[in-house]
Structure formats: structure tokens, C-alpha cells
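Intended use. Records like the one below are meant for learning the mapping from a protein sequence to its folded structure. Do not use them to infer anything beyond what is encoded.
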Amino acid sequence: MTRGFVPETAYNEATSTDGPERNIEMSYSPCPDPVLGDRDTVNAIETLIVPRAVDLGEMEVRRALPSVKRQMVGPFIFFDQMGPAEFLTDQGIDVRPHPHINLATLTYLFEGEILHRDSLGTEQTIRPGAVNWMKAGQGIVHSERTSAERWKNGQRLFGLQTWMALPEAEEETAPDFLHYGSDELPLVDSDGIKARIIAGEAFGMKSGLRTASEALYGDVELQAGRSMPIDATYEERALYTISGEIEIAGDRFEKGQLLILRPGDAITVKANATARFMLFGGAPMGAPRYIWWNFVSSRPERIEAAKEEWAKGRFDTVPGDEADFIPLPADIGKPRRAQGGVRYP
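Structure written out for the chain above:
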């Protein structure tokens, strides 16, 4: 991947790229909006979304949320798959310092590692099975880079970058950062079923990660032929298939698909081949959110204020990474309205 790429986006006009030169100085990747799959939905599945893949050279990115038909699932407003990619020597990600407001980012890896730094003074390497949770609140700046050792020796990288909208009462709170190692997250491993509970509660286990609102996030692996129930505990739920093939109510789904589950319905997931998927969701936000570049808020005017603050250098800098930053992008449209399954006036 070339230096300067950031695997993040705003839900705006720029997601339909006009050419690679447009994205050099911006902190979003040029992923087009996902499209609905052509499969007939069954009772258990409310919406099927097939994210479009964009090849960025050394890495492919698939964006599942936001999409045209569905922008949020519970608090989740952004869901990006990074890779899998093979970085050779002198290659890696080099995400320069950039700002966020009124959201929380959650990074989770299957392979490789990423070095996180932020304006709180945090310096934390994330590895497979661990989680970095960063609450932007009133404002935070961070960078995500390949370490010097990995840049020198190369690595495989495969993971997910998600954003969670904050409740209105939490939007302007102080920023925070939490890291949980893979051994600190609950793990269910029994009878061909393995599930790591990243956030929320499922399968009789509860994560220690305290999110700002009710949320569920789990990494689930099923051996071929095994089945498992997905309860309707959370109002909004979705599955994102990572590998293998799963079956729900007679329909089969391969990797790289987002399945929005119908509220209130318990379902059973069967693995036709050894499969891995992410289970996520939570309570819907009480009102729509607006998204532009790396900013999310319940108030469009707050996004406009954040634009000015970043353009005028009013955000804090990242210790150890002060020399560089991503400029405010121009001409990427107005903040876009985002909502989940609940429709607001």
C-alpha cells in the first residue's frame, strides 16, 4: 500500500472515486457504496448487502457500512474489511494523523499488526484477537502505521475497522482509549464452535469492554457441519461473513456478505464448510447521525465546526507523530444522513 492511505471513509459523494490522484491527501479509501445482493431475502434476513471491493494496490478494501439501503446497525455506522493482503519489504500502511469527533473506533485484526498512536499520548500495537477501542468524544487525533520492524520484514494484514456512533449525551465527553489483549476477551470454545466476545454479551459470556451504548460484537468460527443459534437479544443484529460458507433458513452465503437479520427473530447458522463470521449490532440510536470524512455527529453544525477546527490546527497533536497530518479534504459534498432500521422523521 502506498504511504498516505487511510482505510476509513465518510458516507459521501467521494466514495465513487474519480481517479487515484484524488485520494492521495485524503483519509478515506475510494470504496463505492455497497449494493444489495440479487438473492431473494428469506424471512430471517431483512437485507443482504454485498460490499464492493476496491483494489488499492497491495491491499483490497470492502466497505459494508454505510450503504445506500442501510447505514447503521445498532451503533455501528462504519464497517470496513481490510485485506487480506501480503505486504513485502518496504511496504505497509502509513495512516497519518487525522481527527475524529462524536464516535468510537474499534479495530480488530485476524492477521498482522498495526501501531496506534493518538493525541492522548497512547502508543499501542494491536495484534490478532485483541481490540483497540478509541472514543473520540469531543475530539481526538490518531495515526495508524506499520511498525519499522514490520515495514522492514513485511507481513500479512487482515482485519476490520468499525466506527460506533455515540449517544448524544456522550458525544462531547472526554476522549478515551482502551486496549484489550486477546487473552482478556471472553472465549467460548466447545464442540466445534469458537466465539470471542469483543463487546456485549453472547453465548453465556460477557466482554469487559464497556461501550458507550448497548452493543454486540463477536468473532465466531464454526467447524463444517456445526450449527449454532443466534438469539434475538439485541434489537438490531447483523452477520458479516469472513470465510467459508454458512447456511440460514436454507439459503447459503459465502464470504464477504453482510446479512441484516430481521428484528425479533431467533435464527440458526449452519456451517456448510468451516466458516468465520462477525456478529454485531445493538440498540438503535435515538436519532439519525450525520457523517462526513472522519466526522460523525447527531448535529450537522458540529461537523462544520470540526472542519474549521482541523483546518485551523486547533486539534491536539499526536506525541511522537507531530510532523505530519492529513489535510482537510475539499469538495466531497455535504454531511450525509445515516440511520439504521428505525426510521426517523
